[in-house]
Amino acid sequence: MKSRHKRIAIIVAGIALLAIAATLLLQSFQSNLVFFFSPTEVAEGKSPQQGNFRIGGLVEAGSVQRNGTQVKFTVTDTVKTMDVVYTGILPDLFKEGKGVVAQGKQGPDGLFVADQVLAKHDENYMPPEAADALEKAQQYKQNAAAEGEVK
Amino acid sequence: MMPDIGHYALILALVVAVMQGVLPLAGLSKNNEKLFAFATPMARIQSLLVILSFLILDYAFYANDFSVYYVATTSNSNLPLMFRLAAIWGGHEGSMLFWVAILAVWTLAVTFFAKDLPLRFRSSLLAVMGLISVGFIMFILFTSNPFERIFPAPFDGRDLNPLLQDPGMVFHPPLLYMGYVGFSVAFAFAIAALLDGRLDVTWARWTRPWTTAAWVFLTLGIALGSRWAYYELGWGGWWFWDAVENASFMPWLIGTALIHSLAVTEKRNAFKAWTVLLSICAFSLSLLGTFLVRSGVLTSVHAFATDPSRGLFILLFLVVVIGGALILFALRAPSVGLGEKFDLVSRESLLLTNNVVLFTATGSVLLGTLYPLLIDALNMGKISVGPPYFDTVFVAIMVPGIFLMGVGPIANWKKASVPDLASKLKWALAISVVSALLVPNIMGRLSPMIFVGLLMAFWVMSSVFTSIKMRLNSIPSGSLKQKFKTFGRAYNGMLLAHFGLAVFIIGVTMVKGYEREHDITMQSGETKVINGYDFKFDGILPIRGPNYIAKQGQFHVSKEGKPVALLTPEKRLYPVQGAVMTEASISINPVRDIYISLGEELEEGGWSIRVYFKPFVQWIWLGCVLMGLGGILTMTDKRYRLKNSA
């Protein structure tokens, strides 16, 4: 009987431990999820006011300004644009007119302060998020056009 | 002509693989011993055909045969020979063929080195491997044929991705694949045992060296990949919790659990069903990893939409292999039995905890890797899981595991006592606490994470020495040398691998705790002091490589007037793909790396430059190499070479 009690106690303790571990794990998971938004969605106020998120699209031609290691550029999804500032060295494939994904926070002045600009490896390959942003913008334009026709 | 022969060889291999898979299993179900005789010869013929097919494709790379579409997309006539031969695993189709070729190598090894197994068991083992081969060859032939031709043949190829043009490309994928695919042997052992209803100490003894071998390859493969990323990506990181990395890390974690669980099965005839389940999991994760990395699903889950046959086949294959194995497990596991009983405080229960820890860690990595894919596939938006999630969760899970790792090798099998363990380990604990406080004192900064990291590392190290001391004391007579001779390679291997992990933890903790990153701009001729070192920028030299042109920076690094190194980071342009690549330059020494990479040429003149100081970073890979060596020692233990009269 005694050993049975002992076993039950161990099982209960084990389950309790696992439950605590799972809770902590999911909490950490939740707080580290980074969501992606296109510049249009950001303009519509869908992005979080505080905390990190990702944006993506094309680097607008002629928008890149360098000042030492600080770089300012504009990301566009062809409908809306967003100004981004990043301090540090950009990945090799960062170019005007090419796809880009940046992660960071948006300041109250609307300027997106990136702490990460993602490197992608293939010249022909568009980061999936950037491609997604352009696709969404395309749909947005079509919807807007359709609404205009109705009016 | 040649590529067609390669294609035919692969078709023929499929036919033979079907026979290799079906005939012995038919023999098993009909109790017809004659059919077992097919297993070995069919396995050998199948393997040789697959390897022939692989060599023919690689010959097409050697001969620059751009009439083969796959060669035309991944190679170029200007590519150095070494990279041309390695370019075969630079794309999807070729790496799938490479996968089966590695399976063929393992199959051949089984037919030659597992001769002592009973015929019945060996036949079902080879049959399972044959069936895996059938699945992969069908996948290649029906959805990803690397021998497909293109007419007219292009004048030259589109070149290998410049990022892959590195010696790392020659060695990293083969090692990694040997690891991935090596778990198929452990898987086949498990399935054969379930089919046969036989699972005992001898089974564990046969399985162990094969599993350890796969684990060693995977360990070294991952370590090499990490080191390659460190110097090639130009970011100075050694692990990014990238989905591709996680895909290889998950089978490693489960494989580590498996080799420990197998030890218990062999020594104590316990954990039997669990060991079988882990074997199934390890290979399932290897398959998942292969497909995650090689199917394009990571680039976009919607890649499947453009080629639904590939995605459908992959899903079906995963379902059949994993589902089938698990159903078989559910049906047969009760007959296998759980094994011997053990006390709450014993080496068995410590190893069980180790397994639970590793299993949970795998689960947390799996969650972080697959969740974004799932959300994307359901069109619920795009998310990514930040590295801090993996860092926090992984450390939190592993710390108790590593603490117990110091206790496990000291504890007795079956029944140990806590006061006894405490008295044996009190000095180890004291020494590790003092050292973990002392080292940050020298380095100049202490933080809780640094303390915990160093404490764990020194704890494992001092536990290794305690184990050695206890073992020596337990032998009553003889000189020290004679005493050491009684240790046995398996035991030494275990100690070495544990020590390696401690070395690894030191590397990780020191880099995380004390690395320095500086983004600066420099003019030619300028000297800047960074972290106590003088960096003199002597301008840029133009360089011409075999298939690229480069700008090479000249940096003279010195400390207190004494020259330390000449660092020459490059900015390369590969004209065929129009790709720019940053090549970092690193001064390596046991206690610190100085890492420098070129940013961009600035409009106002000069360059932006990134400089890293990475203390003890080489220990990370040194630790992995020690773990690998430990595994090799264990594999070559005498008892695995004995003929088993089973």
Give a short overview.
The complex is a heterodimer of chains A (151) and B (646). Chain A is of the alpha+beta class and 151 residues long.
How would you describe this structure in keywords?
heterodimer; A: 151 residues; 5-stranded mixed beta barrel; B: 646 residues; alpha+beta; 6-stranded antiparallel beta sheet; 4-stranded antiparallel beta sheet; 20 helices
Tally of individual helices of chain A: 3
Distance between the termini of chain B: 49 Å
Q: Give the biggest sheet of chain A.
A: 5 strands, mixed, barrel
Gross morphology of chain B:
globular
Main structural class of chain A: alpha+beta
Number of beta-strand segments of chain B: 11
Fraction in helix of chain B: 55-70%
Describe the structure.
- The complex is a heterodimer of chains A (151) and B (646).
- Chain A contains 3 helices and 7 strands, in the order αβαββββββα.
- Chain A is of the alpha+beta class and 151 residues long.
- The N and C termini of chain A lie far apart (81 Å).
- Chain B is an alpha+beta fold and 646 residues long.
- Helices cover 64% and strands 12% of the residues of chain B.
- Chain B is built from 20 helices and 11 strands.
- In chain B, helix 1 (2-30) packs antiparallel against helix 2 and helix 10 packs antiparallel against helix 12 (308-336).
- Strand 1 (33-37) of chain A pairs antiparallel with strand 1 of chain B.
Task: Summarize the topology.
The complex is a heterodimer of chains A (151) and B (646).
Chain A: H1 2-31, E1 33-37, H2 39-43, E2 53-59, E3 65-67, E4 70-76, E5 81-87, E6 99-106, E7 112-117, H3 128-150
Parallel strand pairs in A: 1-2, 5-7
Antiparallel strand pairs in A: 2-4, 2-6, 3-4, 4-5, 6-7
Chain B: H1 2-30, H2 39-62, H3 69-74, H4 81-86, H5 92-113, H6 119-143, H7 167-196, H8 201-232, H9 243-268, H10 272-294, H11 303-306, H12 308-336, H13 347-377, E1 383-385, H14 387-407, H15 418-443, H16 448-474, H17 480-485, H18 489-514, E2 516-522, E3 527-530, E4 533-544, E5 549-559, E6 562-567, E7 570-574, E8 579-583, E9 585-589, E10 592-601, E11 607-615, H19 618-635, H20 638-641
Antiparallel strand pairs in B: 2-11, 3-4, 4-5, 5-6, 5-7, 7-8, 9-10, 10-11
